[in-house]
Structures are given as structure tokens and as C-alpha cells.
Amino acid sequence: MRLLRFLTVPVVFVAMTMPAMAEQLSLNALSAFLNDMKTAKAAFTQINNDGSVSTGHVYIKRPGRVRFEYDPPEKALVLASANKVAIFDGRSNQPPESYPLKRTPLSVILARNVNLGAANMVVGHEYDGTATMVTAQDPEHPEYGNIQLRFTDGPIELRQWIINDGSGGQTTVILGEMESGIPLKNKIFNIELHLQRTQ
Q1: With bands split at pLDDT 50, 70 and 90, how would you rate the model's confidence at 58?
Q2: 68 beta partners
Q3: pLDDT for position 19
Q4: How far apart are CA 138 and CA 68, in angstroms?
Q5: Which fold has domain 2-198?
Q6: Which of 4, 14, 120, 164 would you call most buried, defined as having the most Cβ atoms within 10 angstroms of its Cβ?
Q7: pLDDT for position 13
Q8: At CA 50, angle to CA 141 and CA 60, rounded to 5?
Q9: Torsion angle in degrees (nearest 10) through CA of 108, 115, 64, 92
Q10: What is the pLDDT of residue 157?
Q11: Residue 127 above 80 pLDDT?
């Protein structure tokens, strides 16, 4: 499923004030950036493996929570909370697909303590003259795929990610301007609550 492929490695995001530097960002600086991100919101454009394009908004509340709202005609919603991911398809009467959060590289980004310097987590760290690219995976489960995060500096911002899933599919997500430090209620991430509302 296209949305499942998207989530097999997601995740995310926001801006911090730091001195402008036209050079490769260190893994320590990027880990600190992600750890300082408590809440965030952004619009996104998703280029799917089949070439189709989806849009929507993503909401993040670390640790462990994310909400992807897809614009029509998708009618889809993806929630992560309580160590679980659920994919709701508004065009289907079937229960949502669900699986453990720890089985997706999304868990690397949503962890309470992000440490990109951990052994075997980062398999790529490059600078193209404009942005720093970091390719990360779950070091204990590389078979889940990986995610390539693209960061710019001055201040640090996450601009996009490319997801390479375990079956060879690739999905690109381009992020709009991020709002950080905004109040987000836990209930918007609550899978069971949304299940009750849709029954």
C-alpha cells in the first residue's frame, strides 16, 4: 500500500536559530536539532513510488507521536502513538492497518533521545554545497529500509526526506515551512479515540 510504504521510514522537522554556516552539519548538531524539537507542524508534498503526488499536513509531538493528514482525494490519515502506527483509509470500511512503531525507521526520529552517532545508524553523511544529507536506519533492523534526510543551515531546517523501503520502493516528501513549539493536544494522535469516532 502506498501509504504504508511512505511510513515504513518516515519522519521530521522544524527550525532552530543557529549561526549561518555554509558547510556540512555534524551528526551531533543534527541530533541536538531533532532532540530540541518537541512539537512541529508543516505542509508536505509527497511524490509516491508510482510518480503520483499527494499533499497534506504533518503534526509531530516528540517523543513517539505523529499525525499525517492527507488532502482529498486521498481521504487518508496516519497516526503514531502508544508505540503503534495506524493507517486509516477514509474510502474503506475496513479497520485500519496497524503495526508496531518500532518496526519503522520513523521510530529513530521519534525516539526520546535521538543519537545519529550511534553505531551503524547513519550509513551516509554528505554535503552537496547547499544541504547536508544524512541516511539513517535502525541499526538492529536494516531490513526495514532507510531514510535520507536533507537539512539546510542558517538556521537548521529539515527540507525533505527520501524513503527507501525494504521492498525497493522510494518515496520523496518535500516539507513546507515548519512551525515549531506550537501547542498540540495528545488526543489528535490517539489511535483508539479516532477508531471510536469512525465506528
Answers
A1: very high
A2: 58, 78
A3: 41
A4: 21
A5: outer membrane lipoprotein receptor (LolB), chain A (2.50.20)
A6: 14
A7: 38
A8: 55
A9: -20
A10: 92
A11: yes
Query: What's the start-to-end Cα distance of the chain, in Å?
Result: 22
C-alpha gyration radius of the chain: 16
Provide DSSP, the chain: -HHHHHHTS-----EE------SPPPHHHHHHHHHH--EEEEEEEEE-TTS-EEEEEEEEETTTEEEEEEPTTS-EEEEEETTEEEEEETT--SPPEEEEGGGSTHHHHHSSS--TTSTTTEEEEEE-SS-EEEEE--TT-GGGEEEEEEEETTTEEEEEEEEEETTS-EEEEEE---EES----GGGG-HHHHHHHH-
Work out whether strand 170-175 and strand 76-81 pair parallel, antiparallel, or are unpaired. unpaired
As given in the structure block, the three cell numbers for residue 55 are 499533499
Residue range 137-193, pLDDT digits in tens = 888 888 888 889 999 998 999 898 888 887 888 888 899 999 999 999 999 999 999
Q: Which three cell numbers stand for residue 183?
A: 501547542
- In this structure, what is the dihedral angle of CA atoms 118, 122, 123, 127, given to the nearest 10 degrees? -140
Scan for cell 512539537, then name that residue. Answer: 39
Is the distance from CB of 49 to CB of 2 less than 8 angstroms?
yes
Say how far apart CA 114 and CA 109 lie, in whole Å.
6
Amino acid, res. 122: V
pLDDT at 116 over 80: yes
